[in-house]
UniProtKB/TrEMBL annotation:
Family: Belongs to the TonB-dependent receptor family.
GO annotation terms (biological process): siderophore transmembrane transport
Keyword line: Cell outer membrane, Membrane, Receptor, Signal, Transmembrane, Transmembrane beta strand, Transport
Membrane association type: Multi-pass membrane protein
One of the record's GO molecular function terms: siderophore uptake transmembrane transporter activity
Record carries keyword Membrane: yes
Organism expressing this protein natively: Pontibacter burrus
Record localization: Cell outer membrane
Protein name: TonB-dependent receptor plug domain-containing protein
Keyword Transport: yes
InterPro entries: Beta-barrel_TonB_sf, CarboxyPept-like_regulatory, Plug_dom, Plug_dom_sf, TonB-dep_rcpt-like
Domain TonB-dependent receptor plug: 156-234
Length: 800
């Protein structure tokens, strides 16, 4: 009997699960001891009424604290009688609230932004949001939006991803590289979410800018160590970016103008105090700049992008809320000639929140995403359009319960994928290109999870979780069978299996345990231990270190097994100077199963038997991360150093399927040493000077070690894979921010930012390639993307 996948059944199960829980509810329990009471409420921005997630609410009397959840709610048990709540969050003023009660009470807290924001900006791992010592998870970082906006920026465009790359354990392969590498992971091993929408390409203009508009963002959180069980599908990290819902009390216009791009954001109430909206748009106008460059090749090139997002929230009553979100980004890029690249993301989410009581609420979320990549060739004889992409539909139910000393999250999700593997069509009647269409692939990923954070004692906090995921690839499809004991290639195909629509081709499943332990060594120090197992069923097929037009997202299948990552970490964390200084030292080791590499001369473009060029292997990554941060005062910043190694071993059954004799070799993104220095100094209340310096080891390459002359032709002989490295990378950036005069109650506020990127004009190599000149051995050439200082000036504004 044929086994079939029924996505509708899975979605129906989730809806039924949500409805039954809604009907049943949860009985609110009394405090965990008779002499304790429960205090709960919502923390909102005092100016615009938006709920603030991640706020620390600390009970000084009970010496216990929590952070507000995604809807700004908190709940904690404290000793009955008199007490004080201390409330703090990055970018906001601190507040203290006294209480005197012997019964459970509700305290809704309005929190005001700090008058001088930059003095209070916490740069990394904010103590208000994810306390360096008290938080149970290690390897978690946050960056405040104001930090991003006042940091030195390339061509004046504030960039989330470039700021992420300055954190410990994060690196990239070069100047214009898309994505980022976390603790030895490849760029496809990072789950990037924008309001629950998976982002498959985080770059504009091939990596010069990211797709996130900083004016519209609420929070940016990167999990690289302890990953809660609600996240799954990637084995390296999770970057969770949340967008604001808009001002609930007043209309606000904000934006910015830079050398090659502009931004505009409009927000305000739909129904005052009940619903709000925010629409944010950003567009480049770089083509006009290219037209003014004397070089003909650059003058005839094209480069542009735009993105737009919209979000609205409507509160029906105190128990229910609806949130809508939409997003589109588009890029067009073409060098002088006849080839034009464009890629786009279209996405939407709908979220219904149901609050059962102060301790228990649920979210039901639906997500649609469509990512596509196209290459247009305009030369008449070869005019063509190539495209690939990925679509997904996701439905998930998440439940949040605070009970006594427990903070529990549990839920279920189902994601249906459609993979467009590649299509080539002629683009004119004169074109000699023959159409090629690779069949679409389909898969369904489902998961159940449970996560609990519990304070066992004053010194020990534990977060444990379990995720169970099931993945099934289903038809219609055809699968080639190959001769056993022989390398997979066209000549060794023995048969073809055909699967009908909905028929299961291959399925995988497994448990993903998560554990984080915080052992307090006193008020200002702690040891944290963590373990995570993650399964990744999606793969980016690419033999380049950065995203290129031939890259495709591909499902796990009969021959391409899911990657499995097991990571252990241990770290020592210490604060001093009234939490103004934060230090961390963390060791990690990661083992990766089913990582893949490529045969020599692999063909990935429109290859209907792509499994013949993929080689399964195993990987390992290990390293040391150290950081020291100063989080408050006129001088803020951090310095961090990371030692990180990533190695792969491919030992196949034949020499053709083996790399470097089966020994471990560096991955193409392996960069052992990385040093970052980030600093901001408040010269006065209106002038802030910032400095960024970064250094990293050059990435590995494969180089020719000899050459042969055969019939007069010189043939290079390449050595072992990734045995050599390009020169090291280092860069210095400077900026000066001129802030508005906050002593005046003005409706218009403007901020100037003057910056120089790559101050000393370092020609950092993006790649090294080998070119053969007739009659001589291959010679090495170095390509630098940015080899000169790039000054910029930008202006940001707000109008109330």
């Amino acid at each position: 009997m044929k086994e079939h996948v029924h996505p509708i059944a899975v979605v129906g199960f989730l809806c039924l699960f949500f409805l039954l829980t809604t009907i049943k509810g949860v009985c609110a329990g009394r405090a965990w001891q008779s002499n304790y009471i429960k205090i709960s409420g919502v923390v909102r921005d005092a100016a615009n009424g938006e709920a603030i997630p991640g706020v620390t609410v600390y009970a000084a009397t009970g010496k216990t604290g929590v952070t507000t959840n995604e809807r700004g709610a908190y709940s904690l048990n404290v000793p009955a009688g008199r007490g004080t709540l201390l409330v703090s969050f990055v970018g906001y003023g601190k507040d203290s609230i006294n209480y005197n009660s012997t019964r459970d009470i509700v305290l809704n807290i309005p929190l005001r932004r700090a008058t001088v924001q930059l003095s209070e900006v916490n740069v990394v791992g904010a103590r208000e949001r994810h306390d360096n010592v008290r938080s149970v998870m290690s390897g978690i970082s946050s960056i405040d939006i104001n930090t991003i906006k006042t940091s030195p920026a390339l061509l004046g465009e504030a960039d989330v991803i470039k700021s992420i790359k300055l954190l410990p354990g994060i690196s990239s392969v070069g100047e214009a590289a898309t994505g980022f590498n976390v603790r030895g992971g490849s760029i496809d091993q990072n789950l990037v979410l924008l309001d629950d929408v998976p982002i498959f390409n985080t770059s504009h203009l091939f990596g010069f800018f990211s797709v996130f508009n900083p004016d519209a963002l609420e929070s940016i959180t990167l999990y690289r160590g302890g990953v809660p069980a609600q996240y799954g599908g990637r084995i390296a990290s999770v970057l969770d970016v949340k967008q604001r819902e808009g001002n609930r009390t007043n209309y606000l216009l904000s934006g910015g103008i830079a050398l090659i791009s502009g931004r505009l954001t409009v927000e305000g109430p739909i129904t005052k105090e009940k619903s709000s909206f925010i629409v944010a748009g950003r567009s480049s106008y770089s083509d006009w700049l290219l037209k003014r460059v004397p070089d003909v090749n650059i003058k005839n090139s094209r480069a542009s992008f735009y993105d737009i997002s919209a979000k609205a929230g409507y509160t029906f009553n105190e128990k229910s809320k609806l949130t809508l979100f939409g997003y589109r980004s588009y890029d067009r890029f073409g060098f002088s000639g006849d080839t034009l690249y464009n890629w786009s993301t279209n996405a939407a989410t709908i979220k219904y929140t149901r609050i059962f009581n102060t301790d228990f609420y649920a979210d039901l979320t639906g997500v649609l995403t469509n990512y596509s990549f196209k290459v247009l060739t305009e030369e008449p004889a070869t005019a063509s359009e190539y495209s690939n992409g990925i679509k997904l539909a996701n439905l998930k139910a998440d439940f949040y319960l605070t009970k006594n000393r427990h903070q529990v999250t549990f839920g279920a999700s189902a994601v249906n994928y459609r993979f467009a593997q590649g299509e080539l069509q002629p683009a004119s009647g004169q074109s000699e290109v023959q159409p090629v269409v690779l069949p679409e692939e389909h898969a369904l990923e489902s998961a159940l999870y449970w996560n609990d954070e519990v304070k066992l004692s004053d010194k020990i906090t534990v977060m444990y979780g379990l995720r169970y995921s099931v993945y099934a690839v289903y038809g219609p499809a055809s699968v080639y069978l190959y001769q056993a004991g022989e390398p997979r290639q066209e000549g060794t195909i023995t048969d073809t299996l055909n699967y009908s629509s909905g028929e299961v081709i291959k399925s995988y499943h497994g448990l993903e345990p998560r554990l984080s332990v915080n052992i307090g060594l006193g008020k200002n120090s702690a040891v944290k231990i963590g373990y995570n197992r993650n399964r990744q069923y999606l793969h980016l097929i690419s033999n380049t270190t950065s995203i290129s037009p031939t890259d495709i997202w591909k499902t796990s299948n009969t021959y391409l097994k899911p990657q499995i990552g097991d990571q252990v970490s241990v770290g020592y964390f210490r604060n001093s100077g009234d939490n103004r200084f934060e230090g961390a030292l963390e060791l990690y080791y990661k083992r990766i199963e089913n990582i893949h590499d490529y045969k020599n001369g692999a063909i990935l473009y429109l290859n209907k038997m792509i499994e013949t060029d993929l080689l399964p292997g195993k990987g390992r990554a290990y390293g040391l991360e150290t950081s020291i941060s100063k989080t408050a005062g006129r001088l803020t910043g951090w310095v961090n150093y990371t030692y990180s190694r990533t190695e792969i071993a491919v030992n196949g059954a034949t020499a053709e399927e083996t790399i470097n004799q089966g020994n471990y070799y560096p991955a193409s993104y392996d960069k052992p040493h990385t040093l970052n220095l980030v600093s901001s100094y408040e010269l006065n209340k209106r002038l802030v000077a910032s400095l960024n310096f970064t250094y990293s080891t050059g990435r590995p390459i494969t180089a020719p070690v000899a050459h042969y002359v055969i019939d007069g032709y010189i043939v290079p002989d390449f050595g072992e894979r990734n045995a050599y490295r390009i020169p090291d990378y280092h860069r210095l950036d400077l900026s000066l921010a001129v802030l508005p005069n906050r002593s005046r109650n003005k409706r218009w506020e403007g901020t100037w930012n003057i910056a120089v990127y790559n101050v000393y004009g370092r020609k950092n190599p993006y790649s090294v390639f080998f070119k053969q000149v007739f009659g001589s051995p291959p010679r090495a050439y170095q390509l630098a993307v940015v080899g000169v200082p790039l000054p910029s000036i930008s202006y940001d504004f707000k109008f109330r």
